[in-house]
Amino acid sequence: MATRSVLLALVVLDLLFYVPPGRGGPNVYIQKIFASCWRLHGFCRQKCLKKEEYHILCDTTRFCCVNPKYLPLLTGK
């Protein structure tokens, strides 16, 4: 009986760590979190949309595009 429980636990853990390829299912939410930046308000993209502004770099090829209302206010001169 203990062997079945251990085997079941291993199968469940294996399924939890498996990330199937593609953009369907619950992985869309996981991909959105990992593709986000600037406190989850921005998105890593090759080119920002018209309503977004570039703020920081996500990596060497992508920009962190953020809606201006989420950016910090610049004060002083």
UniProtKB/TrEMBL annotation:
Cross-referenced Pfam families: Defensin_beta_2 (PF13841)
Family affiliation: Belongs to the beta-defensin family.
InterPro entries on file: Beta-defensin, Beta_defensin_dom
Main location: secreted
UniProt KW keywords: Antibiotic, Antimicrobial, Defensin, Disulfide bond, Secreted, Signal
Signal peptide interval: 1-24
UniProt xrefs under Gene3D superfamilies: Antimicrobial Peptide, Beta-defensin 2, Chain A
Beta-defensin domain residues: 36-65
Places the protein is found: Secreted
Gene Ontology terms describing biological process: defense response to bacterium; innate immune response
Domain of life: Eukaryota
Protein's job: Has antibacterial activity.
Stated name of the protein: Beta-defensin
Parts forming coiled coils: none
UniProt key word Disulfide bond: yes
A single GO cellular-component term on record: extracellular region
